[in-house]
Amino acid sequence: MEFLDCPCTGKSLTRLVRPAVLTLLAGETLHGYEVLRRLAAMRICGGRRPDAAGVYRTLRDMEFEGLLAGAWDLPEQGPAKRRFSVTPRGLACLARWNATLAEYQAAIGQLLEAAGAALGPATDREAS
Hints:
Elements: H1 17-27, E1 30-31, H2 32-40, H3 52-64, E2 68-73, E3 81-86, H4 88-119
Antiparallel strand pairs: 1-3, 2-3
Helix pairs in contact: 1-4, 2-3
């Protein structure tokens, strides 16, 4: 049995977009398009380009919440672009995410051990 579209494949960890955005922007100021491009390269997106509208909505929401600061780049030619950077509040949020993700990592490790024990010794059978 295949689980191509099942959440069990973990191909898209959409709930991790916020900490990923904060992580990307903690190091530098980026345009929304560059945030999208870099998110696509992260394992949380499973090698797929994230939903652009969803990411831009998340950026806007995070700006409204005071986690990000946005400013318009108005080049002489080409379209205006919005640049985002992390605020002190956003850095505090990222620190909390870091602690939360460490807790998740420990919980996932424990779950993996229990699942491995439940499945028994390694065999050549495929997961179904």
